[in-house]
Amino acid sequence: MLDELCDLLRIPSVSADPTFDGDVKRCAAAVASSLQQAGASNVEVMETPGHPIVFGQYHVSDEAPTVLVYGHYDVQPPDPIDLWDNPAFDPIIKTTPKHPEGAIFARGACDDKGQMFMHVKALESMKSSGDVPCNIKFIIEGEEEVGSSHLDAFLEKHKDKLSADVVLVSDTGIISNDIPSITVGLRGLSYVEVEVTGPNRDLHSGLYGGAAPNPINVLCEMIASLKDEDQRIAVEGFYDDVLELTQDEREDMARAPFNEAAHRESIGIGAHEGEHGYSPTERMSIRPTLDINGIWGGYMKEGAKTVIASKATAKVSMRLVPYQDHDKITKLFTKHFHKIAPPSVTVKVTEMHGATPAVTPTDSPAYHAASLAMKHTFGKNPVPIRSGGSIPIVASFERILGLKTVLFGFGLDSDAIHSPNEHYGVFNFFKGIETIPHFYTHFARLHNED
Length: 450
Ligand code: BES
Ligand code: MN
Ligand code: MN
Prior knowledge:
Blueprint: H1 2-9, H2 21-38, E1 41-46, E2 53-58, E3 66-72, E4 92-94, E5 103-105, H3 113-129, E6 135-141, H4 151-157, E7 166-169, E8 181-186, E9 188-197, E10 203-204, H5 215-224, H6 247-254, H7 260-267, H8 280-283, E11 291-297, E12 307-308, E13 311-320, H9 326-340, E14 346-355, E15 358-359, H10 365-378, E16 383-386, H11 393-401, E17 405-407, E18 423-425, H12 426-449
Parallel strand pairs: 3-6, 3-7, 7-17, 8-16
Antiparallel strand pairs: 1-2, 2-6, 4-5, 5-18, 8-15, 9-13, 9-14, 10-12, 11-13
Bound molecules: ligand BES and manganese (II) ion (2 copies).
One manganese (II) ion binds at residues 76, 111, 145, 417-418.
């Protein structure tokens, strides 16, 4: 199983960069053939205006409930490649303090090829033991890391084909290998690029400096003003729709184990920061954020060049919480950014992508099935947790197909997803393959009792 996963990891299916389009296609075909080999039928690589979606199914009986398994085979770009200890698409197994049984190092190992592949192998093992308790449908997409922009239309178009009772997704994490958890909330996202233009060309900084507006200086000042002294986001109306948690809910959340000092140490920071009045865990999950993801302009090569650039640019992401609407937030941000621009410059705000926040129920047969399955294989009840990440399609499944999702992930926050040296524990991979069949057993029973 590990060898087969490594074969998938060798395909650089980077969805963001058109140079890799051929590899993305090849990866879709490889996923399709692994589903076929696992015993799925009606396996298809379905074209979209973007990267293809792989479909497959396993039908046991019209009486059994149907589970729609979603995953993604596309990966983030490996950059910065110099910081990988081993090439990003040449998987290697090494031990780490958190993974004494070894971890597979490669881009996509945890996010999401390793986790998606657990479902393929779980089907294969259920089939060989002769006990598949539910009907299963798979949709494995190739555009998650670029915002899943063609998935909504795909869901609309294939409503019947995708009909199911619940969606099961392994693309999140657990607290640690001995503290299982189930994610019950994801943040949404509004992502924009801002450009500030000053003079009509790059200028000599001696001849013009002091009087000509410097767009880099201006952009920095504008960005600095986006948060107040309490680190609250200063965009007018930004918090209007934010769901405030009750004191009880906050106390519940605080019960999930979190070691602040160990967390600081694991990312090498002297102190946490963020919105006043909230704990680090809350700031990372139930509160919205505004972060600059990239900023550039002017002279960036070797040596010094005395210049005032004509333009400066930044990428800005805002993580959103229920009930913030990403379109509305993007509009509010755009309006605010124009408003705070001094008359010496012009600004342009370009929308990149958006995602709707999601909360998933903890009182459903599917949640109970997931909880019992983890109890069985970890020996402990999983803790419900809110994650700070985003999976745009969770809200789409609910809106378009009317389906709730169970976020049944097995990664660790320290697995370095999207970073150099991404990895996925061998323990986690096999724990997932072991746990998933128990989900189906419990879900088949609980769903029919419901
Ligand atoms: N699998 C992640 C999201 C995630 C990871 C959620 C861990 C919870 C725990 C997903 O692939 C991802 O990276 N999503 C993007 C969404 C964006 C590209 C629209 C994100 O969160 O930045
Ligand atoms: Mn993912
Ligand atoms: Mn990701």
